[in-house]
What does this fold into?
Amino acid sequence: MTNQLNAIERLAEVKQERMQKNLKARYAKEKRFQVYGIMSICLGMAFLAMLLGTIFYGGASSFMTSEIKLTINYDPDVIGVTDLTDEDELKWADWRGLLSTSLAERFPEVSGRSAVRQRNALVSSIAEYSLRDRLLANPEKLGTSEEIWIVADDEIDAVMKGQVDRTVPESERRITDLQLSLIDSLEAEGEIRQKFNTTFFTAGDSREPEQAGIRGAMIGSFYTLLVTLLLSFPIGVAAAIYLEEFAPQNRLTEVIEVNINNLAAVPSIVFGLLGLAVFINVFHLPRSAPVVGGLVLTLMTLPTIIISSRSAIKAVPPSIREAALGLGASKMQMVMHHVLPLAMPGMLTGTIIGMAQALGETAPLLMIGMVAFIADIPGGPLDPATVLPVQVYLWSDLPERAFVAKTSGAIMVLLGFLAIMNLLAVYLRKKFEKTW
Amino acid sequence: MTSSSLFLLLIIIVAAVFVLGRKRSVDVAQSVGGIRYLHSLPNYYGLLAAAWAAIPGVILLALWSAFQDVIIQNSVFSLLPESYQALSGSRLDLVWAEIYNLQKGIITEASDPAFYPAVEALNNLMTTSTTGRTVLVIALTVLGGVWGWRLIKPEQRARNQFEKVVEALLLASSMIAILTTVGIVFSVVFESIRFFHKVPFTEFVFGIKWSPQIAINAEVAGSSGAFGAIPLFVGTLMIAGIALLVAVPVGLMTAVYLVEYASSRVRSIIKPLLEVLAGIPTVVYGFFAALTMAPKLKGFFEGIGVNGVSSESALAAGLVMGIMIIPFVSSLADDVINAVPRSLRDGSYGLGATKSETVKQVIFPAALPGIVSGVLLAASRAIGETMIVVMAAGLAANLTANPLEAVTTVTVQIATLLVGDQEFDSAKTLAAFALGLMLFFVTLMLNVIALAVVKRFREQYD
It folds into this structure.
């Protein structure tokens, strides 16, 4: 009897022991599981930090540019122009000569063809056009001389930013020893400086990194978004009102709802195909124009706006509708005078988020030709233009090192706009959020 | 008159009709004893009259603008010599471009004097059309306005009628969604049918060689290019697969941790950061994949002795794409995990299960339909994603299973085939639409299946 009891007790002990062990293993599993969760989150956050870090680290330098101080003598003999109003003469004017003579005066010691070429490459290869514009704007300067700051070449700029390793042998550098020594002498005299890169924000696209700016793309984005907003907001709100307040429960309504949900998940590039086939090939709208981009993005953002507007309308309590109807308002008056104003903040939030999506969208715009190289700043929604994300795409393809920084700089501007839009949406939501 | 000034004039006329209509309603009200004897408020009479004026005019203007080019081209076309009428495609486009340029005066001398009658006819027709449009549109608007104005009587049910008009406009707005779908289907289907006339469907779907570059000289052997899309499908699936391998476990674990473990403070920090990750434009991810991730991966694999790593590897594009869809997966998973009823959790805890056991044995099975549909939606995103692969994956269509080699995807090919100048009847451009059709069809199927899965299993626990 006691033996049996003992046996049972022993068995219980063994079981208990096993359970304790098992429990340990289970707790360890629990800990592991939790660690996986933390690791997943850390992975996402680390990537976000890495992405933003790379872009900000690489892009910060694009907001500075280098300039060289030169004494420019607007000598009619050098330019070969005596009358600034004579178109024929201007055609043959030697603007480059202005820079090379001025550089020759600054560095008289440089001689020999190759050395002179290296010396002339100190300044941007299209800086002469800004000189031309300057002179044409102030014709009285012809024959006089002045000291001005000229934009340096992007390679020189890289040296100034410390991106060039001077210990590398000359043959493996894009900049020669002679140029380095010239830069050093300029630096010693304080005749080369770094300043905020206003060109980046005031110029259109260019093949020369030091002259390329994002203004054209920014204006293009502005017109595109303007068209998108003007079309998608009223249409989206109207559709949401119809579906929430007026639509009867029938086949048609069902088809519309299924369509909206499916469109929200159609890849954006397919909208580009639609834009190309319908807006450009059938309606013959101009290629590369913000108006077409706006139309395509409208169709793309409509589902977002409709879905968020519908939930904003749903959030308005039925008591408000009943009160309006009870006071004798018609259904339309009830919607227009009461429901719509109360749902408006929610609709605006949804619209801003939709616009932010549209601002970052690239793929469909490639299809409709907004990817062309356009140096001019667009003057209206019908002019050929490009947009910020497409500019990023275009620059990321270029081989010059300076364009990598420019790309990051353009991304920073793009992210800045997106941040502002999203913060505005958050602010609107916080400010007008109502709990009924 | 240009379209914009005509449009402006229309607005002015409509505004005037509103004012006059409103005034007339007040006037007619005097005869029956004051405004309160009108059926509706005076504004509604004005608005209804304005709608009478605006709607016919705007519709005519839209129709006229849409069809004038086609009609003019057709009538000018008959004036061209027979030899030009027989031309097709891009050649004909060149002829048209020349005729239009001659008409606008951009060029003054035609390459063939036979163009001059066509140019003159074009010029005449365009002038006639513009004048005709201006006169007819304005006449119709004014007529509509007068008609609406004359209809105004005290007993006219102006508010009800105007509300009907507004409701019709609201319905029309929501029909745009259907129109968009129809537009997408038609634009890809029509061009795809033209493509399948040139390239057999079976060759497209089962062919294993893709080289859409067409030799300039038609006599050169192999000038027709090869349109076997299997390498593209394989490349797309490989990159999307890598992306899902990253995004699904990470996104799922993130959601589980945020819902089941994290304090509300941690949640309130992590969630917005994930939203930031979701809000970054894809072109930025593409830039990062191409300029940072790809060289790093290449360096890493060469460091451990693997050679032949392409600088445009599928792995780099897939990894970055995976990171991009993490927030998408995690927010969908978040919703479905939150939707699992509290009672199931409590029951599991009551039986002595740990949190992770509850998650694995109770919550996952309960949330499975939602998770599956989330994964399907994520897959549809990964397949349709364009910019990352355009920038970080290659252009060459390799049929390979090695993720370290360059592959190309459906979206990359659509983008590269259609960027830049194109003639619209070559197999090369049409191929892009056939690929677009495939893409649209596959993503649509994934969505439909995902929604069906959710619908089928949703109400299990309610």
About this structure: Strands of chain B lie at 210-211, 226-227.
